[in-house]
Amino acid sequence: MINRIKRNIFPTIIALSALSVSASAAFYSVSGLSKLFAGATFEVIIMAGSLEVAKLVIASLLYQYWDTINKLLRGYLTIAAIILVLITSMGIYGFLSAAYQETYQKLVVNENQIEFLENKAKFYEDDVTRYDEELERISGNISTLSNAKATSIQVRDTSAVGGLRSTVSTAELRLAQQRIGVEEENRKEVNAKRTVAADSLQTIKLEILKLQNDSDTVGELGPLQYLSGLTGTPMDKIINILLLVIIFVFDPLAISLVVAANFAFDIANRKNLYNEYEDEVPDDIWGDDEWEDEEEDEEEDINDIEVESEVVEPEDDFIVVDEEEPQPVKVIQKGPNSHRVLYSDGTEKKVDKNSDIIRYL
Asked: Would the pTM count as exceeding 0.70?
């Protein structure tokens, strides 16, 4: 029993692997087909599930009864299994492509949001640039007005010699100071507007950075985007090739593992002509050691016995006839030291495995 359990461990692992792959393929196929025929989801699930079970049963049946099953039925079941594999592959393709489209739509929405925010950021960047130019112009005006000075002029004064008197005019200086005050107010107003525009620009850039590093889309489609950029191939074409590779490996692998599990169990539980498991036949089933001991005892006993010899003369009418000895036909059971051999007269005898009889059979 222990040997039988050990012998069936690896076939059981193969069978479990086949069931896991088959169950996964069935789940994806049923889900994909239900999305293709969304109007009758429940009915499609029942139909596709029964077809998946039937496919595995057909694979096992064809392996075990390939030589005995009717040829017409065998041909039909083979074609049916191939068609079911194609249907399963189509369902898996539909399921995976739908999952990709869902993620790709998220990426498209994400990219559209980024594009909108980039346009908005460009608007604020132009505002900041314009405000910087305005501040630079105001600063230049203030610098020019700050250089204004009082000018000396001559006014008519009858009390002065010659009727003219020199004095200083501050009108231009007062006008320049008034203008500087106005420019300072303008600079404060423009600087406040620039601050608002710069803050808005920074907020938008942070939103763009957050969308670009979104964990959902980057984690799911990041490798595809990298391959697309590396090879110069559109991402849709890359995902299509990947899906085709998956479906042409997935379900055929499940069928192959089912056949391999049948083969492994067949080898592990093979029986001999006597309906016995070969590795459970005891090594001493033939009792070779006991035979040898008995033969030695018999030889010793024979040597100890004294036999009186007597010569018997045959009578005249005594005729010796050579009878044909039975010939060995085939080995019907193998043992560790001796084999059981079937003779032409129907008898069975134990023969040493190194005997010429065994060698020439």
From this structure: no
